[in-house]
Design a protein that fits this description.
- It contains 15 helices and 20 strands.
- The protein has 504 residues and is an alpha/beta fold.
- It has 2 domains: 29-303 and 460-493, TIM Barrel, CATH 3.20.20.370; 310-457, no CATH class.
- Strand 16 (412-414) and strand 17 (417-419) form a beta hairpin.
């Protein structure tokens, strides 16, 4: 269940008391500690953010504070240079301009296509991004949506802004609870490890959280490459009893500023209990020798995309082709992973050498083709046999498209017959197998029905995945899910490199 500010609250009773931290035996356990710094209504949340930042600085830990644009402006108007200075000791991310004021990100994106949605995100959000950059004195390194207001078009804008990490939580997309590459960004999103470390409603589950951390640590530490934990808090939750935005903007409400209400406060004792929960949990995690706290930007060097800048020989391309089936999806190989659009690029480049009658050479993968931005030709119901001469002309035409637009086409044309790109990729795999296995051109190519199986990693549209009290009742966004599923052409696991030291 998502709380008003977007935090997920989990609780599990444990009877096992935490033991002494073990000595490191395997891989590093990286902890991404991040704060959605968003409450621009309750003044006490300013001091809460400062206390958290100052404590972490004293501990020698850099966290990531994702700032709302209006929050940064409020700190400036209140002349809270002390708070700004404390937060600036850490890495700064971006968490939207106005957070919960309507329309929220998912609401204004819900009817827009890919390109229009990216432009609208920039129109509404770039000002807040630049505000945070100016006030905090550093360029935000990551973005995460407010609450459950996820929208895939944001990725296109963020990539253009130079933001390389999507850091948040949600139910809309996930890859087995692990980090992943999607739409050109590293996603620390929908991560399994870390959720049980969150407090319950009364902040009384510290012993359970410590025991859970030990279990997670033991499992991740046993892996050669280690693993990653994503743990989030909100500064405001240390001082209030109800989220600031739920008090004012719940169920689609959008009152003017002069009617905003302050959320009820915790008692001093309740607030101190929350801070003690956090401080004791952090110092407990820090006591493990194999634990290393990292920021959003540092995860980019931890999860190096080894498929990129790699040269693929003909035998490797043949192996890749052999794993392509009617259900088009990502691939995991011994030392690299590939998303469907990268697979299409490699196979298309290999076949192009035959079409152009050029010497066979290894293929360099330098970048990832973007996904189709809309559904093109309808799915095939039966296979279509295409003469080699027509197939070769189509390969040349697709090559022109890839060079101009750097993305997978919405449809691929064999004369007057348009087919989905999934069917074209399946045909490329069959041609590659034929060329490598028989060393001769096929007379005809069978273009068969295929589907984007990777789309299963994006949840189907339902009110459940938009479970945020801020949305109007019954809100859901089928257009966003449709676009999100198309973007799984760019989806693949992000794998942690063994013994990697993150760049500072």
């Amino acid at each position: 269940m998502l709380a008003a500010g977007g935090a997920q609250i989990f609780s599990r009773k444990r009877s096992t008391a935490p033991q002494e931290p073990p000595q490191p035996t395997g891989g590093k356990v990286y902890v991404v500690l991040w704060f959605d710094t968003e409450d621009y209504i309750l003044p006490q949340s300013d001091a809460a953010a400062k206390r958290l930042a100052a404590f972490l600085t004293e501990q020698g830990i850099r966290a990531t504070f994702k700032m709302v644009g209006e929050k940064a402006r409020v700190l400036e108007r209140r002349n809270r240079r002390d708070v700004i200075g404390a937060l600036a000791e850490h890495e700064i991310g971006y968490h939207s301009n106005l957070h919960s004021q309507h329309p929220t990100v998912a609401e204004y994106e819900s009817t827009l296509d890919w390109r229009t949605g990216a432009d609208e995100f920039t129109r509404r959000e770039r000002f807040g991004f630049e505000t945070v950059k100016r006030i905090m004195g550093q360029t935000p390194t990551c973005y995460g949506q407010p609450g459950a207001a996820w929208a895939p078009q944001a990725y296109a804008a963020l990539k253009e802004w130079g933001v390389g990490v999507y850091l948040d939580d949600g139910q809309q997309i996930g890859l087995d609870g692990e980090p992943f590459w999607y739409a050109g960004l590293l996603n620390i999103f929908n991560i399994s490890d870390g959720r049980t470390l969150r407090p319950n409603e009364t902040w009384s589950n510290l012993a359970d959280a410590k025991a859970d951390f030990q279990d997670i640590h033991m499992r991740l530490n046993s892996k050669r490459a280690g693993g990653l934990i994503s743990l989030d808090f909100h500064p405001c939750e240390f001082v209030h009893k109800e989220f600031w935005d739920a008090v004012n903007f719940a169920h689609g409400a959008n009152p003017p500023r002069d009617q905003w209400k302050l959320p009820p406060l915790k008692t001093p004792e309740e607030s101190e209990k929350a801070f003690q929960y956090f401080q004791q949990l952090v110092t407990f995690m820090k006591s493990f020798p194999s634990v290393q706290f990292v920021t959003a930007l540092q995860t980019r060097s931890l999860f190096n995309d080894t498929a990129q800048r790699r040269v693929y020989r003909a035998d490797e391309v043949a192996t890749i082709a052999g794993q392509v089936g009617p259900g088009v999806s990502l691939q995991v190989h011994d030392d690299y992973t590939l998303c469907p659009s990268e697979i299409l690029f490699l196979l298309h480049s290999f076949v192009t050498q035959t079409v152009q009658k050029t010497p066979e050479e290894p293929i360099l993968l330098d970048g990832t083709l973007g996904a189709p931005v809309s559904t093109g030709a309808p799915a095939l119901s039966n296979s279509v046999n295409v003469p080699w001469e027509q197939f070769a002309r189509t390969v040349t035409d697709v090559g022109s498209y890839l060079r101009k637009f750097n993305q997978v086409p919405n449809a691929v044309w064999f004369g007057s017959q348009g087919v989905p790109p999934e069917s074209y990729l399946l045909a490329l795999a069959q041609v590659t197998d034929h060329l490598v296995g028989k060393g001769a051109l096929p007379d005809t190519v069978s273009v068969s029905p295929a589907q984007l199986a990777a789309a299963k990693y994006v949840a189907d549209d339902s009110p459940a995945i938009w479970d945020w009290v801020i949305f109007p009742p019954g809100f859901h966004a089928p257009r966003l899910i449709e676009l999100g599923k198309l973007q799984t052409w760019t989806l693949k696991p992000a794998r942690l490199s063994p013994s990697t030291s993150p760049a500072q």
